Amino acid sequence: MTQMHNTSAGQWTAREKLIFHFFFLFFIIQALPLSVDFFKIVFGFNWLYMSYGNIFDLTRLSAKFVPGADSLVNWLIVGVISLIGAAFWSRSKYEEANYDELYYWLRVGVRYRLAIGIIGYGFIKFFPMQAPFPSISNLNTSYGDFTTWKLFSMSLGIVPGYEAFLGGVEILAGLLLFFRKTATMGAIIILVFTGNVFISNLAYEGGEYVYALYLISFAL
Q: Taking a C-beta distance cutoff of 8 angstroms, is the pair 119, 37 a contact?
């Protein structure tokens, strides 16, 4: 930490500072639970008798300004706010901040937020809850009556051991993010794993592609 304090901010060019202003604000806002659903989720359950579903909902809280399902419109809003904030920052007295130190803390914040998000999903796979074993009624339903995402979910749910393995991979990747020496490896695992989740959601019309892209952006 002493070394960071002694680092000269003059090593950063004006262009690099401007770009940093934008991305610093963008990722910090994205990481904060600035959600229209915040009070509904936080005060919508009994904290003395929490279920894992409640904890999972807390891990998914992020910047959300438009009610309803996750949307890239929220990203656009965050981008506009960050762009305006970056412009003001460039003209403020904080323009000559220690950028090496700010960059360090940004990476710490991003690592921990990503770890929380990926571990949250890891546990609902490790204890097969995200894609449960198909019920008798599902097994007796005509194939053509299922949505493509339901077919994908049942294909995963019918092999709970494999689903638990996938959850274990996510939990491991999240734990690796908590330590600086293993953070890069954790981020690489998440890029490969969550990249596949993102493509699967697009291909099978799942509803989690925006959040998957959110985790990918943090891993990058």
A: no
Furthest-apart CA atoms within the chain: distance in Å = 68
Decide: 148 and 193 in contact? Cβ < 8 Å: no
**52 is written with which tokens?**
């894992």
Helix (H, G, I), strand (E, B) or coil at 46: coil
Entry pTM: 0.87
- Helix, strand or coil for residue 60? coil
**What is the identity of the amino acid at 40?**
K
User: CB under 8 Å to 196, separation ≥6 — which residues?
Assistant: none
- pLDDT tens for 135-189 read 999 989 998 899 999 999 999 999 999 999 999 999 999 999 999 999 999 999 9
Distance from C-alpha of 176 to C-alpha of 187, rounded to nearest angstrom: 8
For tokens 């490790």, the residue is: 126
Nearby residues of 168 by Cβ (< 8 Å), 6 or more positions away: 122, 126
Of 110, 142, 128, 125, the residue nearest 215 (C-alpha):
110
Helix (H) or strand (E) holding 72, with range, is helix 72-90
